[in-house]
């Protein structure tokens, strides 16, 4: 479970987050929408312990990230907009390296190829250098690393930006598979359609505040769009 409790973050004189509270239960996909600079990435970075909150607390599975950073890191996997991999290594070799770094264990080739397949990578590409991969293929290696880690929470920062519609759709299905395994998923996105299709909950952020938090079942796509635009223009 991911929890933000009245969390604020001030950078010098900029209040990037203002008393934000949210909760993502196991088996939920929480999609955070908001204009550029609304504070979405800052919130994700607090869960990753890349930043400290100015006040309030973020928790992963009930543990404070500030007080238990190592245990919390074990529980989460992170997929940024651009997955950083070693270009001179193959997708398989990257997975082998990062999976053993994350888990402290070696995995068989069969297991790792199985994870790449589960993440949707064509097995024929597994032994090709990552420098020849498309963005979507790199994302799939990122997903395979997250699967190897068997993380209880998944954090994603604009994971579908720059993916073509069918790759974005495929990526959404992977997130749904993680949700079905009981993972708590928090993702930022600018794509309202993706949020409505994929999210179980949708949050709208504006100037550091969470101004809406709703169940995606309770709102149509057109009403979500109207609500979003109303907040942005207010
Ligand atoms: N390290 C930093 N130092 C100073 N200000 C920062 C820092 N990181 C973020 N900010 C500011 O905090 C605010 C929130 O930024 P954040 O990156 O969280 O927004 P965002 O909602 O993720 O935006 P985008 O959709 O463009 O990715 C912005 O005004 C940004 O300029």
Notable traits:
single chain; 234 residues; alpha/beta; four-stranded antiparallel sheet; binds adenosine-5'-triphosphate
Question: What can you see in these coordinates?
Answer:
With 234 residues, the chain is α/β, with parallel strands linked by helices. The protein has helices at 40-47, 69-75, 91-103, 109-118, 135-149, 165-180, 192-198, 221-233, and strands spanning 2-11, 14-24, 29-34, 55-60, 63-64, 76-79, 153-157, 184-188, 201-206, 209-215. The protein has a six-stranded mixed sheet with strand order 6-7-8-3-9-10, sandwiched between helices. Helix 3 packs across helix 4 (109-118) and helix 4 (109-118) packs across helix 5 (135-149). The radius of gyration is 18 Å and the shape is globular. Keywords: ATP-binding, Nucleotide-binding, Transport. This is ABC transporter ATP-binding protein. Residues 2-232 form the ABC transporter domain.
State the gist of this model.
By secondary structure, the chain is α/β, with parallel strands linked by helices. 38% of the residues lie in helices and 26% in strands. Pfam families: ABC_tran (PF00005).
Beginning-to-end CA distance, first to last residue? 32 Å
Radius of gyration: 18 Å
Which ligands accompany this protein?
Answer: adenosine-5'-triphosphate
Class by alpha and beta content: alpha/beta
The total strand number stands at 10
What percent of residues adopt helix (DSSP H or I)? 25-40%
- CA-based shape: globular
What letter string, H or E per element, gives the SSE order? EEEHEEHEHHHEHEHEEH
Strand content: 25-35%
Largest sheet: 6 strands, mixed
Q: What is the number of helices?
A: 8
Low-confidence stretches: none
User: Quick check: average pLDDT?
Assistant: 92
């Amino acid at each position: 479970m991911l929890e933000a409790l009245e969390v604020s973050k001030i950078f010098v004189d900029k209040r990037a987050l203002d008393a934000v509270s949210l909760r993502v239960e196991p088996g939920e996909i929480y999609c955070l929408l908001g204009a550029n600079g609304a504070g979405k990435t800052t919130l994700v970075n607090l869960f990753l312990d890349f930043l400290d909150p100015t006040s309030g607390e973020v928790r992963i599975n009930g543990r404070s990230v500030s007080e238990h950073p190592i245990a919390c890191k074990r529980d989460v996997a992170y997929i940024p907009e651009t997955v950083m991999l070693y270009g001179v290594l193959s997708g398989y070799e990257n997975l082998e390296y990062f999976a053993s770094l994350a888990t402290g264990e070696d995995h068989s080739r069969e297991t790792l190829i199985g994870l790449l397949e589960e993440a949707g990578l064509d097995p024929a590409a597994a032994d090709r250098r990552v420098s020849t991969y498309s963005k979507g293929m790199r994302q799939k290696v990122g997903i395979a690393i997250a699967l190897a880690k068997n993380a209880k929470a998944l954090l994603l920062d604009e994971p579908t930006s720059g993916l073509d519609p069918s790759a974005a759709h495929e990526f959404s299905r992977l997130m749904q598979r993680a949700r079905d395994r009981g993972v708590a998923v928090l993702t930022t996105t600018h794509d309202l359609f993706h949020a409505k299709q994929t999210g179980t909950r949708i949050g709208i952020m504006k100037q550091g505040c969470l101004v809406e938090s709703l169940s995606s079942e309770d709102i149509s796509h057109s009403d979500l769009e109207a609500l979003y635009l109303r907040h942005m223009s207010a």
